[in-house]
Amino acid sequence: MNTSEKIKKVLAIAFSLFMGNGLLITLKAIFPTQLKAILPTNGNYRSFVIEAIGALITVGLIFLFKKINVLKITGKGLATGLVCGLPMLITYTLLMLAGFLDLPGKTLIPALEIVLVIIRWFLIGVAEEGLFRGVIQELFMDFFGSNTRKGVILSIVCTATVFGLNHFQNLLAGVSLTFVLIQAANAIALGLVFGAITYRSGRSILPTVLIHALIDGASFVYNGMLWGASDVDTINRLDLRSLVLVPIFTGIFIFLMRKSKTPELVSANKAAKAIA
């Protein structure tokens, strides 16, 4: 890839980040009163609308940059992705059950809001996995190369880092810096696992969309969103103990991307190109 093409890829990554996250932040800064008048005042309705817009923008970016292959999946690819994500599937299913066990005696939010919150879990999965693993990770692979283990790992690490740093926007929502730092560190490590799962799945985002939805759903339920807690409340309940997830997720990533899997990774890359 020559210098001009590399610059185009970097600009494409920057543009994707802006459209996926920066656009709404910019509009809020320039037109705060107008947006406040347009968006629903209820927090759950507003979050639903914002995530729906984010998901639509992400799908648009996937088509714009011709990364349609990330939307395709085979039975084997889905099974591989879910097996690779099995530790998280088990852990966060148990966390969600723990949250449901705490429901008795609580006053729940209205039924329609509960439905929107559940749908929102999947919208977040589509918006974030589509943007980061479906577009940005693919663009990094164009930049670093997807036919070598080094190129793949560099792409995943860079994407995970951007994914984690992206959570600093929560400072604008009122989350304290301490909690944002904890969330960002966990997100970088989680992004490594998501990147590996996506690649091991034949570069399809479907497995990570499902796992991401489960993780957010479990977090929302466990932290009380079904009985009125907000996104900010959920993040502000983090503490230093949650950083134990960083070495755990990093270890899972190292295991999934171990050298002995290199032939399989190359094969998955060729398969993804074949169906693109």
What is this structure's SSE topology?
Blueprint (H helix, E strand, L loop, with lengths): L2 H28 L1 H7 L4 H22 L10 H10 L1 H16 L9 H34 L4 H17 L11 H24 L5 H17 L8 H5 L9 H12 L5 H14 L1
Largest sheet: none
- Shape label: globular
- On the 0-100 scale, what is the average pLDDT? 90
H-E order: HHHHHHHHHHHH
Distance from N terminus to C terminus (CA atoms, Å) equals: 20 Å
Rg measurement, Å? 19 Å
Low-confidence stretches: none
How many E strands?
Answer: 0
The secondary structure category is mainly alpha
Helix content: over 70%
Description:
The structure is a single chain. 39% of the residues are buried. This protein is mostly helical and 276 residues long. Helix content is 75%, strand content 0%. It has one domain. The radius of gyration is 19 Å and the shape is globular.
Key descriptive features of the protein:
mainly alpha; 276 residues; globular
Could you give a short description of this structure?
With 276 residues, this protein is mainly α.
